[in-house]
Amino acid sequence: MWIRVGTSQVSSVPGFLPSSRAHYLNFTIILFVSSCCNMMGVAIFAVYANCDPTATGAIQKADQIVLFYVMDHLSSLYGVTGLFMASLYAAGLRLAVE
């Protein structure tokens, strides 16, 4: 998906210099998003290093750990869980459209 977006951005600009700027901007955004995802994984690992939510029965599958983390630690902040769920729903719809 990321390659297709980057290719369409590069091919839609008129010259070489703007296309290289679009390419570097796309690369920077992808690097930032990937770094955020990696840091989120490290943070969740640090929180649940001593207790395994799958072993305690709090979650059934390991891919539910991010949702469990949001509900467990961020539920005290008003609106954060709803915003997170809405963003996941929007991402799922976007993938379904493509």
Can you tell me about this structure?
With 98 residues, this protein is mainly alpha-helical. It folds into two domains: 1-47; 52-98, no CATH class. Helices cover 74% and strands 0% of the residues. The protein has helices at residues 2-11, 16-47, 53-56, 65-73, 80-97. Helix 1 (2-11) runs antiparallel to helix 2. The longest helix is centred in the first third of the chain and has 32 residues, at 16-47. The protein is elongated, with a radius of gyration of 18 Å. The N and C termini lie close together (9 Å). The mean pLDDT is 82. GO terms for molecular function: symporter activity. This is Sodium/iodide cotransporter. Keywords: Cell membrane, Ion transport, Membrane, Sodium, Sodium transport, Transmembrane, Transmembrane helix, Transport. It is found in: Cell membrane. The chain crosses the membrane at residues 24-48, 77-97.
**Low-confidence region ranges:** none
Bin the helical content.
over 70%
- Tally of separate helices: 5
Helix/strand order: HHHHH
Assembly state here? single chain
Number of strands: 0
Average pLDDT level: 82
- Major beta sheet summary: none
Q: What is the 3D form?
A: elongated
Give the amount of beta strand, in percent. under 5%
Domain tally: 2
